[in-house]
TrEMBL record:
It comes from Neovison vison. Pathway: Glycan metabolism; heparan sulfate biosynthesis; Glycan metabolism; chondroitin sulfate biosynthesis. Keywords: Disulfide bond, Glycoprotein, Glycosyltransferase, Golgi apparatus, Magnesium, Manganese, Membrane, Metal-binding, Secreted, Signal-anchor, Transferase, Transmembrane, Transmembrane helix. This is Xylosyltransferase 2. Catalyzes the first step in the biosynthesis of chondroitin sulfate, heparan sulfate and dermatan sulfate proteoglycans, such as DCN. Transfers D-xylose from UDP-D-xylose to specific serine residues of the core protein. GO terms for biological process: chondroitin sulfate proteoglycan biosynthetic process; heparan sulfate proteoglycan biosynthetic process. Belongs to the glycosyltransferase 14 family. XylT subfamily.
Length: 429
């Protein structure tokens, strides 16, 4: 992600709906956010955050570092086909999969669950609060399995928002407290992810690296990363929007890092993040509450400054289809005051990239059946062989666009216009 730089001071002013901040707001970004926020509640939140920040009472000035390493510990682990086939010491690890989903693609979600499902693992699904149809379908699906659960709470998790980190932290606490769910690793997936190696290969690999945390770093100069990621800017989420409110300082005393928000974490590290009273975690939680794309940096930064810093492996075990020219078009400006990038969909011609020979990768993203389903069929065949002859609808894909339980309010303006037009046409004949 990348965005504008610079901020200028400006005079405070009442907003159109009569809201007046409690302090003198200065700074172009903060005043712009106040002027654009539509609800009084959001304006109040923005003003409170800015006033605390201007008074120096919001951000931690310094954060303790417990890592004894002078530099960054991020060794790579190579994929060895022969070693991968050798059994691991100790019992096989068990995985808690956190599935973070939204939209309406229940068929693709079922396909993903089928591909990664194993009776020894656990599956926890969060459905975005705006996706009611998908939530109903997922609840019905989870009833069929003892080791699949749906979060009893839901959040609106916007792209780049602080809500995504809150969702992960709450889900992690839930997973630690489910009776009988004795998992060893936490893996987060979206409905557009898909496995590229078998469950047996993944379990064997993690069983041989059961004390490692797998997070992918940005791989560039830290100061450049901080600027491009907006970590030196103050953000606040309200009204389903991330508002840029001005500049801020990175806390002293720590190494700030980040990269991908898809990771594989040990249970012990998750317990540390969720339960510790360590000021390192508490103060970084405060810092990342007002951070753009916090899930892309929070866990990296906590781990690299914690006593467990030597457990970091700079690889999140995924291959992602990045094409900056196609994927970086500021497509999220309507929900965040920044420019961001998204990966592209894999297609059949990309299959060679999914077969990583030297790197241990077990998942890939993105896949969207509405764009191309053939690549998923190729992957399925590669992993599990052919489907039985006569399998129905193997080449077909359907996605629900309307459910009677939602009523017309569940339709977008485009869909409502299209359906109304079809209804009018039918009445003519």
């Amino acid at each position: 992600p990348h965005g504008d730089t610079g901020s200028v001071e400006g005079a405070p002013q009442p907003t159109d709906n009569g809201f007046t901040p409690k302090c003198e707001i200065v700074g172009k970004d903060a005043l712009s956010a106040l002027a654009r926020a539509s609800s009084k509640q959001c304006q109040q939140e923005i003003a409170n955050v800015v006033c605390l920040h201007q008074a120096g009472n919001l951000m931690p000035k310094a954060v303790p570092r417990h890592c004894q390493l002078a530099g960054k510990m991020s060794p790579g682990i190579q994929w060895d086909e022969l070693r991968a086939q050798q059994p691991a010491d100790g019992p096989p690890v068990r995985i808690a999969y956190m599935l973070v989903v939204h939209g309406r693609a229940i068929r693709q979600l079922k396909r993903l669950l089928k591909a990664v499902y194993h009776a020894q693992h656990f599956f926890y699904i969060h459905v975005d609060k705006r996706s009611n149809y998908l939530h109903r379908e997922v609840v019905e699906l989870a009833r069929q399995y003892d080791n699949v659960r749906v979060t009893p709470w839901r959040m609106v998790t916007i792209w780049g928002g602080a809500s995504l980190l809150r969702m992960y932290l709450r889900s992690m606490r839930d997973l630690l407290e489910v009776p009988g769910w004795a998992w060893d690793f936490f893996i987060n997936l979206s409905a557009t992810d898909y496995p590229t190696r078998t469950n047996e290969e993944l379990v064997t690999f993690l069983s041989k690296n059961r004390d490692k945390n797998f997070l992918k770093s940005h791989g560039r100069d830290n100061s450049r990363f901080i600027k491009k990621q907006g970590l030196d800017r103050l953000f606040h989420e309200c009204d389903s929007h991330m508002w840029r409110l001005g500049e801020r300082q990175i806390p002293a005393g720590i190494v700030v890092d980040g990269g991908s928000d898809w990771f594989v974490l040990t249970r012990s590290f998750v317990e540390y993040v969720v339960y510790t009273d360590d000021p390192l975690v508490a103060q970084l939680r405060q810092f990342y509450t007002y951070t753009l794309l916090p899930a892309e940096s929070f866990f990296h930064t906590v781990l690299e400054n914690s006593p467990a810093c030597e457990s970091l492996v700079d690889n999140n075990l995924r291959v992602t289809n990045w094409n900056r020219r196609l994927g970086c078009k500021c497509q999220y400006k309507h929900i965040v005051d920044w420019c961001g990038c998204s990966p592209n969909d894999f297609k059949p011609q990309d299959f060679h990239r999914l077969q990583q020979v030297s790197r241990p990768t077990f998942f890939a993203r993105k896949f969207e059946s509405t764009v191309n389903q053939e690549v998923l069929e190729i992957l399925d065949f590669h992993l599990y062989g052919s489907y039985p002859p006569g399998t129905p609808a193997l080449k077909a894909y359907w996605e629900n666009t309307y459910d009677v339980a939602d009523g017309p309010s569940g339709l977008s303006d485009v869909m409502l216009t299209a359906y109304t037009a079809f209804a009018r046409l039918s009445l003519r004949h």
